[in-house]
Write a structure and sequence with these properties.
Layout lengths: L1 H30 L14 H22 L4 H9 L11 H9 L13 H20 L1 H27 L7 H22 L5 H28 L5 E11 L4 H5 L6 E2 L13 E7 L2 E7 L9 E3 L4 E5 L7 H27 L15
Antiparallel strand pairs: 1-2, 1-5, 1-6, 2-3, 3-4
Helix pairs in contact: 1-2, 1-8, 2-5, 4-5, 4-7, 6-7, 8-10
């Protein structure tokens, strides 16, 4: 199992970090008129390292459960899921993780964060349990799909309208799992049948994901207008209550173009250049005596393209969006069909078994 997972996970991660991600990065740099450089990194494949760690950590548990299919854990799950609503008991560990680890109003900050690591670990283990339950799980989600959808939609609307997509993290967890239960339930009911297209796409999905950033950046460079300049900003992920940052007026989502001034502020004030939606602000932030500010920025800075005003309509923008998606998917599938699938030594580099 470990040998197989090393081939399916570590090899694509290493190959992608040295070839796929740098090519994608080069196209991005070229399109945005940045200095081009070769920069090996995990990029959009960051989660593969996490998954391999999950395999190493959970392998003993998986081994015991698979050798003893009549184990206590699965017997308890089989009994509990006689009541399909009990599926929501599986959200409890995720709620605990969100409250203890996830940054406030930053539930979506997965990449290269402790929250992303622990959330992924829980999801990996929960997925194994669900699949081990087999038909018991699928019958449960089929029976609860309408209820789950009825929970997901109102919670989404509340999060969007009342909390501007923030809000209590436990509600985000319940909403997320409600969408999942609904998708699994409707999928099991209406899509769970033999399909040549599904069989093909299930094999293509991993290589397509590995490749997609190359074709996304290539499609964007062919269709979209180039920016006139680029600004590097850091996003405010969250602001602690009663902190200097909150008193200064910083809020989640603010873009700060000069967060580095905080490193030199110490007990003096720092003038932050802030963009809030379409408004530009200068906010003075005064750390306390210990240098504490209470503001937490995104782990990595973001590039924000600056464009000249144009007469582009909403229709044209939507058309460009559709074209970029079509070209991206087409490029990925063609590369899979004519390179990854047909060249034997290519397949392992993209996590595809040689059969």
């Amino acid at each position: 199992m470990l040998k197989d997972r090393a081939k399916r996970i570590l090899l694509p991660l290493i190959f992608g970090s040295f070839f796929i991600v740098p090519i994608s990065g080069y196209l991005y740099q070229e399109f945005n008129n940045l200095d081009t450089m070769y920069l090996p990194n995990g990029g959009h494949l960051w989660f593969l390292g996490n998954i391999f760690i999950y395999v190493l950590v959970l392998c003993p548990i998986f081994f015991v459960l698979k050798r003893n299919p009549d184990n206590l854990l699965l017997r308890c799950c089989n009994w509990v899921l006689k009541f399909p609503a009990a599926l929501y008991l599986f959200t409890i560990p995720f709620i605990i993780e969100a409250e203890l680890v996830a940054p406030p109003q930053g539930f979506a900050s997965y990449a290269n964060t402790p929250h992303g690591f622990w959330l992924g670990l829980l999801a990996f283990l929960t997925g194994f349990i669900f699949i081990s339950l087999g038909d018991v799980f699928w019958r449960a989600v089929e029976r609860i799909k309408i209820i789950a959808l009825g929970i997901a939609i109102p919670l989404f609307l509340v999060r969007m309208i009342v909390f501007q997509f923030g809000g209590p993290l436990f509600l985000t967890v319940i909403e997320s799992w409600s969408w999942l239960f609904a998708v699994f339930g409707f999928g099991s009911t209406y899509l769970n049948r033999p399909s040549s297209a599904l069989a093909y796409l299930s094999k293509a999905v991993y290589p397509v994901y590995i490749l997609h950033m190359i074709f996304l950046n290539l499609s964007a460079s062919l269709i979209l207008s180039k920016p006139t300049s680029i600004e590097m900003v850091s996003y405010v992920n969250y602001v602690e209550a009663d902190s200097p940052a909150q008193k200064a007026g910083l809020i989640v989502g603010d873009q700060v173009s000069n967060p580095e001034v905080l490193k030199f502020a110490e007990n003096s004030s720092a003038l932050l250049n802030v963009t809030r939606k379409v408004t530009t602000l200068d906010i003075t932030l005064v750390p306390d005596g210990d240098g504490y500010t209470g503001v937490h920025f995104s782990p990595i800075p973001y590039f924000v393209p600056i464009f000249t005003p144009s007469d582009t309509t909403i229709f044209n923008g939507f058309l460009h969006f559709i074209l970029v998606n079509i070209l991206t998917l087409s490029g990925c599938l063609l590369a899979y069909e004519y390179f990854v699938k047909r060249i034997a030594w290519f397949r392992p580099l993209f996590g595809v078994k040689n059969t």
